[in-house]
Amino acid sequence: MTLTLFYRSRSPAGGRSPLRFLLQALLVVTVLVVSLQTGFARPNILFCISDDQSYQHTGANGDPVIKTPAFDRVAKEGLRFTHAFCDAPTCGPSRSAILTGQSIWRLEEAGNIHSTLPAKFATYTDELRKAGYKVGATGKAWGPGRLEAGGRTENPAGPLFEGRTLDPPFRMMRNTDYAGNFDDFMAEVDGDESFCFWLGTSEPHRAFEAGSGLKTGKDLSKIVVPAVFPDNEIVRSDIADYLVEIEHFDTMVGRAIATLEERGLLDNTIVVLTSDHGMPFPRAKASLYDLGSRIPLAIRWPEGIDNPGRVVDSLVNLSDLAPTFLDAAGLKPPRMMSAQSLVAVFEGKKPKGRDAAFIAMERHDGCRAGGKGYPCRAIRTADFMYIYNFEPTRWPSGSPDASVCARALPYGEIDSSPTKTFMMENRHTHGIADLAYLSFGIRPTEELYDLKKDPEQMVNVAGSVEYESTRAQLRDQLFAQLKKTKDPRVVGGNVDWDYYPYYGRIRTEGWTVEEKP
Questions:
Q1: Of 162, 181, 237, 430, which one has the greatest count of Cβ atoms within 10 A?
Q2: CA–CA separation, 424 vs 437, rounded Å?
Q3: What is the C-alpha separation between 323 and 246, in angstroms, rounded?
Q4: DSSP conformation letters of 67-83
Q5: Nearest-angstrom CA–CA distance, 39 and 2
Q6: With left for phi above 0 and alpha for psi between -120 and 50, is residue 8 left, alpha or beta?
Q7: Going edge to edge, which strands form the sheet with 376-380?
Q8: Could you tell me the pTM of the whole model?
Q9: Tens digit of each residue's pLDDT (9 = 90 or more) over 72-102
Q10: Is 136 helix (H, G, I), strand (E, B) or coil?
């Protein structure tokens, strides 16, 4: 069990009675004695995050092709979460939510990708550093965006360790030796100094080396093709290439875990494996559906998790990690952190408020005229997904007109890929047209999916009389949460996401963000 104490020293002159002060002092001494007897120490943190990985693509989560021994070990020896969701299915906003413990609608510019994370928002890394932790990061940390615009001079995930490189197994993979950089960080950790490290790979972000899956011996006939994609060799091979990149991430994590084991630090280190959002395919990344928002999550910490090996079905958001890390370290999370600590889950309790996850998106990649985004919010329960689209007349996956996209791509919210190209080129073909419309077409204001009947969220039942009461109840629950957490789109105030600067690459001549009227 984790021993957590929140204590602020205050003299009797500060308003407390001498007796109460003495009792509190005795409590602190008692806790310290117990800590010494039990060997309790503040936990270290190794946070490992891939870039664009959906929930099902680990061995422990059931994929029949992929090999992820590191994830599978952490899941077996810790907790495996079956209903973990990113706060936003887009890199920068998701990572901002993880660091700050807040929903993206509370983070101003950080609700957009290719933006900034204003320095006024507290991060768990800063709080841990103030408490004496050594903090570091490697690979893809917070980003993409410009830190200076938000008043920061250092990546909020921590000082970057980037000295080690390697020859990656396939082209298009980053040449960063993530695990080697973790070793360099550990070489700077002094004695019993507690540490927090962010190991973030750029894999499995696009692009992939075509055919890498086949080169590693993957059997395309065993690839599980989501129902929202056409099932053919092009798509199967594309998925296989994506799985290869996840395996590269897992290998790096395995090496980092081995380093901790060699140093005798593994059991008092909170090891987290997850991803920032879902796979870089149509109707996945940059969408609120499960392929875009439901992510793998496994956490290992023998000294703080009761009955390890459990499967946790409670619904959680990745923003819950920030208050969890601080709580586990015996620190009180800043009041601005609106997410919930998972320490009660570690202890085997069933805390209230774990019956729903909340997901959002604003501007993703500048793929509409004038820099307009696609504002939407969702509530995901065990049985239903309800989505509210604030601007249903806009193209949700970006405009089909490449000339209004900063990256000069049609449907530019979706990364270029063999799967996307095939679906676009055959979007009028029988058997593919309906799938193409789900990925590229206009969406209504409200969407509702019955996950027991329709786990891949392909049939919108929001207009069905049979589901009217469910739709109304979930809408009320979603908007109550948005109101409680002060979403400007619901409670009023500055709604500026369409007008914040865009710091991404602009390939379209003359493309710019419109000024706010």
A1: 181
A2: 10
A3: 27
A4: --HHHHHHHHHSEEESS
A5: 11
A6: beta
A7: 357-361, 376-380, 384-389, 446-450
A8: 0.92
A9: 999 999 999 999 999 999 999 999 999 999 9
A10: strand
